[in-house]
Design brief:
Elements (H helix, E strand, L loop, with lengths): L2 E3 L1 E2 L13 E5 L5 E12 L4 E8 L5 H5 L1 E6 L8 E4 L13 E7 L4 E9 L6 E10 L6 E11 L2 E22 L7 E12 L3 E7 L5 E10 L4 E3 L3 E4 L8 E3 L6 E5 L5 E6 L4 E6 L5 E5 L6 E7 L5 E6 L5
Antiparallel strand pairs: 1-4, 2-3, 3-10, 4-9, 5-8, 5-10, 6-7, 6-9, 11-12, 12-13, 12-14, 12-15, 15-16, 15-17, 18-19, 19-22, 20-21, 20-23, 23-24
Length: 314
């Protein structure tokens, strides 16, 4: 530790454990708090550095904008890097979740600082679990690593600007504790490349909340890790239903809001595309349909339901 302001339990941020944390807490009326830590070795230009932190439960965009990560060389008062937390995190990855704030350093550094300011009506606290940095530049220049919940699982995508001696990427997942990651898949790397590359992997059996990272493995066995992303999986799709049946004029469709539906006749011919509004139930006009049996299918999940169009209005 180098210096602090409005901080408690500072040694916990440098004890090598991601289960214990120091806390900085900015008082109300725009008070400030900060914690500055030293790396055991210099993190060279092009390397990666970061902090594992946990924001308070009342986090919003104003708090993210008022929280910054800064890096320094020795005891200089001029920052090498200065990032607003809002540029490194989004609100879906904050609150009660432990997250890694990671970035590529612009020049050699050996200190990192997190600082935050209070709001007019509330104090702001940040728990700091650990600071870390790669001593040498990574052989793979990772541009992005993202995760998105879909109807079939969590889609993970990442891209690289260049790769040197890259063999493969191991996709790892943690559930509750960020220090317990397990491999769930592997994707072959490009070897040597100076061109942008895109990769993807689907976790078909995600948990309600999952944390993901990439373990990049070189041909000589050396390893490096990506930033961590947190993804909340989609809730189970709402059961699909269409009623009344038989129906002469209108049916009510109950299904997943915003989903795309396909309407088929009894011969398997698609007769209509139905886009669900952002509500769970909506009416569908079936007056123009000939009498017969019809099937409504969710295009994303494959769920289907049957209804009968009665003779009458056409």
């Amino acid at each position: 530790m180098v210096s602090s302001l409005n901080a408690t339990n500072e040694p916990r941020s440098v004890d090598g454990s991601v289960s214990t944390a120091a806390r900085i807490e900015a008082p109300v009326l725009l008070g400030a708090a900060r914690l500055r830590l030293a790396f055991p070795s210099t993190v060279r230009r092009g390397g990666r550095a970061g902090l594992i932190i946990q924001m308070g439960s009342n986090v919003d965009l104003g708090i993210l904008n008022g929280t910054s990560i800064r890096t320094y060389m020795n005891n200089s008062s001029t920052a090498v890097d200065n990032f607003a937390a809002s540029s490194l995190l989004d609100l879906s990855a904050t609150g009660t979740n432990k997250v890694a704030v990671e970035f590529t350093v612009a020049d050699d550094i050996n200190q990192i600082e997190i600082r935050t300011t209070g709001l007019l009506n509330a104090s702001v606290s940040v728990d700091v679990f650990e600071a870390y940095g790669s001593v040498t530049p990574l052989p793979v220049e990772l541009v992005s690593f993202q995760g998105k919940a879909t109807g079939t699982g969590v889609a993970l995508t990442w891209s690289t600007a260049s790769e040197h001696n890259s063999d493969h990427f191991v996709v790892e997942r943690a559930e509750e504790e960020l220090d317990v990651f397990r491999a769930i898949g592997q994707v072959k790397g490009a070897g040597n490349s100076t061109q942008p590359r895109q990769y993807q992997f689907v976790d078909a059996a995600p948990k309600a909340v999952s944390y993901y990272r990439l373990r990049q493995v070189d041909a000589d066995g050396k390893e490096a890790f990506s930033p961590i992303v947190m993804v909340k999986s989609m809730a189970a799709a709402t059961a699909l239903a269409a009623y009344p049946s038989p129906a002469a004029d209108f049916i009510t469709v109950a299904g997943t809001p915003g989903s795309s539906m396909e309407l088929f006749n009894q011969f398997g011919h698609r007769v209509q595309q139905v886009e669900m509004a952002p509500v769970q139930r909506q009416q569908l006009d079936v007056r123009a349909l000939p009498a017969g049996v019809y099937y409504l299918r969710n295009a994303a999940t494959g769920q289907s339901t049957r209804f009968v169009k009665a003779a009458g209005a056409q």
